[in-house]
Amino acid sequence: MYKYFNNVVSIAKALMIKRISKGNIVVDATVGNGNDTLLLAQLVGEEGKVYGFDIQESAINNTNLKLIENNFNESVYLIKDSHENIDQYVVDKADLIVFNLGYLPGGSHDIVTKAETTVIALEKSLDLLKENGLLLVTTYVGHNEGKTEDRQINKYFSVIDQKKFNVLKFEFINQINYPPVLYCVEKNKL
Ligand code: SAH
């Protein structure tokens, strides 16, 4: 496990490891290079299911290769479409849904997640969560588009009913250069 919580990526991973069990149904809403997708596939095992979304063909292909190389492709459904359409593909209720926003490292900076569609996808994701399910969202506030997106997400999460959801924001307040921020939303017992 992680000895130090010095970045939100480690915190998100630790939460995934803690909360996901074999047989769970989980969603990676932004597969990118497939690192989270592979971890999710390992955690849910053969009896579980991972849905992965990305709008870039290269992200889907790279992720698929990574899964095949590691022999973890069986339980993963990769979907080349925007996560705002998540409800058209994910039919089961999910134990955990993860969004790692921004642009693909090493890819085009023009293809970046956008506030408007992200918030729609988040609303749908909260509906899709099981009771006690977790939504993890990493935002990248170091660039303008990401800052705007983070503000919209913060605004949306600030007003959702606390009886229905527990919303936690992880933010390093002593680090330079606008480190990423992690939101963790848990669905309460209804
Ligand atoms: N910033 C992260 C990686 C983010 S990758 C890091 O540093 O690790 C974000 C991915 O989201 C990209 O691969 C991009 O293609 C994808 N993406 C952008 N808009 C999307 C959308 N509407 N639906 C699904 N995926 C999207």
Question: How is the secondary structure organized here?
Answer:
Elements lengths: L7 H12 L5 E4 L6 H10 L4 E5 L3 H13 L6 E4 L6 H4 L4 E7 L14 H14 E11 L4 H15 L6 E6 L10 E7 L3
The structure holds S-adenosyl-L-homocysteine (SAH).
Polypeptide structure, described:
By secondary structure, this protein is an alpha/beta fold. The protein has a single domain, classed as Vaccinia Virus protein VP39 (Rossmann fold). Strands 3-2-1-4-5-7-6 form a 7-stranded mixed sheet, sandwiched between helices. Helix 5 runs parallel beside helix 6. It is globular, with a radius of gyration of 15 Å. It starts with 7 loop residues before the first helix and ends with a strand.
Please give a handful of descriptors for the protein shown.
190 residues; alpha/beta; Rossmann fold; seven-stranded mixed beta sheet; 7 strands; 36% helix; 23% strand; globular; binds S-adenosyl-L-homocysteine
Annotation, overall tally of beta strands: 7
First CA to last CA: what distance? 32 Å
Uncertain residue ranges: none
Q: What form results from the Cα inertia axes?
A: globular
Q: Beta-sheet strand percentage?
A: 15-25%
Secondary-structure element series: HEHEHEHEHEHEE
Q: Characterize the biggest β-sheet.
A: 7 strands, mixed
The total of helices stands at 6
Quick structural gist:
This protein has 190 residues and is α/β, with parallel strands linked by helices. The chain has helices at 8-19, 35-44, 57-69, 86-89, 115-128, 144-158; strands at residues 25-28, 49-53, 76-79, 94-100, 129-139, 165-170, 181-187. It contains six helices and seven strands; from the N terminus they run H-E-H-E-H-E-H-E-H-E-H-E-E.
